Amino acid sequence: MSRWAWMLLILGMSAQAENVVIPDPDWNVARAQFSTGISDREPVDDVVLLAPPVRDVYFFTDLRHLEERIVTHRWKFNGSVVSVVPFKVKGPRWRVYSKVEVEPNQLGEWSVTVVDESGWPLHTELFRYVAPESASSTGQDSAPIHFPASE
Q1: Once rounded to an integer, what is the mean pLDDT over residues 2-16?
Q2: What is the reported pTM?
Q3: Mind giving me the DSSP string for 30-59?
């Protein structure tokens, strides 16, 4: 390859690099969890396993140092995207949540990936939606099975 071809290749690569947003190390998701409800902008519980008849599932995130950025909750059911919810972050600490209504036949793995506007993944969480008989075989008395919210 000639010297001019190499120069053009290098110039093209540096021009593309200018459009890349490099994540700031201070950007982070301080907390993220699934919940069956939100009260005063905080999750009421921490869901890891859920069973019908509960259908409303919330995903809460506590974002830090992402002001003026667009952050998205990308919901997936068994690996397929089912909902995309963008948020404009307006402060150094920003608490947001999104919600889906899970159908009783949508048993399986649910996840949410928090991504920035460039598509960079910041955090992922998952929970399982199981048949009521599967939930009761865990030794718990009733569904939903969840853990108390952390303080």
Answers
A1: 51
A2: 0.76
A3: EEEEEES-EETTEESEEEEEE-TT--EEEE
